[in-house]
Fold:
Amino acid sequence: MAVFTTYEAIGNRENLMDVITNISSTETPLFSGLKKVNATGKYMEWLTDSLATAATNAKVEGADYSFGTISPLTRVGNYTQIMNKPFQVSMTEEVVSKAGRDSEKAYQLEKATKELARDAEYELINSTVSAGTSAAARTMKGLLSWITTNVEVGSGSGSEALTEDMFNDALETIYAAGGRPDTAYVAGGQKRAISAFTTSNSRTIDASAGKLVNYVDVYASDFGMIEIVYDGFMSASVVAILQKDMWNIGILRPFKSKEVPSIGDSIKGVVEGEITLIAKNEASSGQITQLS
Structure:
């Protein structure tokens, strides 16, 4: 007699776990970590200034004053950028039995919110500025476009490995310009390179746990303590070194969800907001570019 197996059986229930697994990173250190301030228009402006270069200053006794020309303030700004994530779910999908979630609408709303935060992180770092038109979206100037004063390029070959000397040269350049850097944002490869620095970091054995400590979250430099922050949206060929309190996020419209009127058999929604990046003075920070 032939054995009746699952290969011939009809009607066996499927083995579908009641869980949804998503390992996409939801970490947004720049978007989450910078101070938020209110914006009141689509073009947000602020003023910057600098001191005159230090020079010899010795005057003849009894001499009259000599008055120079006062330099005006510099007026800079950035455009707010509209970002959204729409979603649409059929009424049938909302009510049928589903694995891993009770409400498709709620699940898609949560997913759209996370995706929009990831988009915001990417744009805050990489966006290039555009005033926009009635037919083209306006875009903010992102972090890497803002930093122009203190840029280290190593040999300029475009494939140079980050070294401790290069990192400290960048810190020195920023410090000399008046900045007081405290945070470096890096992708994975540059995070590993910094962890391999030797002079300012010790590698010790944790006897109780039997582990070799081989990572750097804070780098002790001649120019202060620098927090090393992994950011998956930072260019792999760049190290961005910031004086963090010199950067803000301007919020014209906070990210919010809303339902969109539907004329069909579906539920429509969107998560939307409008933000910009404020560089109070970009010379307070710097970047190392063209790294391998």
